[in-house]
Amino acid sequence: AQSVTQLGSHVSVSEGALVLLRCNYSSSVPPYLFWYVQYPNQGLQLLLKYTTGATLVKGINGFEAEFKKSETSFHLTKPSAHMSDAAEYFCAVSESGGGADGLTFGKGTHLIIQP
Amino acid sequence: IAGITQAPTSQILAAGRRMTLRCTQDMRHNAMYWYRQDLGLGLRLIHYSNTAGTTGKGEVPDGYSVSRANTDDFPLTLASAVPSQTSVYFCASSPGTSGEQYFGPGTRLTVT
Predict the structure, then answer these.
(1) Alpha helices in chain B (DSSP H)
(2) What letter does residue A61 receive in the DSSP assignment?
(3) Tens digit of each residue's pLDDT (9 = 90 or more) over B31-46
């Protein structure tokens, strides 16, 4: 069975600093991996995804993530944090590729940006 | 283009009452899903449908039922609500090509 672990329920960084949100997954087959962002009182918005091919994936709002099979990780980074990045971030995995059976989500990381 | 709409936006419901949460998408996606979001637990899959006429159980299906009569609509029914079903419910859809899902704005349900 697939699973996702997000390290740190809360992460606080200063504006302009590097953002690093950690995600480790467990999957019995090559996974499809996703990062979603949720702003207060809104639904989830796709930031980026890894399916196959290049392991460094670029997404919206300057975020990127690198798939490391040997470490079963898919950490999310952004070189310079902005106040507007404050939100809840979810890592998710799918084994079925086509999303036939839904996504398995981590418990989320709340990103706090200090001025 | 609206994407995915959910109704109602929020609802307070007495325990034991029946409730249907509505979800409609206009993207002609084959697959649709219902998740519940609870603080500290992330999102958990309740039910899914790969195509009209088929449904399947997710991680937490007990107390919920779904139907998929057509491509666009995927209602979620609570036959007899209990307080533990207090949550925020999200509907999502997927074209099914590479797994990404698109989410609605959510329904906040409080069962008293």
Answers:
(1) none
(2) G
(3) 999 999 998 889 999 9
Q: For A111-115, what is the mean pLDDT?
A: 96
CA gap A78, A16 in Å, rounded: 10
Interchain CB contacts (distance < 8 Å): A and B: 76
Give me the residue from A43, A97, A105 closest to B99, CB to CB. A97
Rounded to whole angstroms, the Cα distance separating B31 from B51 reads 6
pLDDT digits (tens, 9 = 90+) for B4-32: 999 999 999 999 999 999 999 999 999 99
Measured between CA atoms, how close is B88 to chain A, in angstroms?
10
**CA gap B71, B51 in Å, rounded:** 7
Query: Is the per-residue pLDDT at B53 higher than 80?
Result: yes
Residues 6 or more apart in contact with residue A70 via CB below 8 angstroms? none
Q: How many CB atoms lie within 10 A of CB A11?
A: 17
**pLDDT at res. B17:** 97
Looking at the complex, report in whole angstroms how far the Cα of residue B104 sits from the nearest Cα belonging to chain A. Answer: 6
Which residue in chain A has the smallest CA separation from B50?
A100
Mutate to test the interface with A, among B4, B36, B43, B91 (most CBs of A within 10 A): B43
- Cα angle value A104/B33/B22 (rounded, 5°): 140
Dist. CA B42–CA A85, nearest whole Å: 19
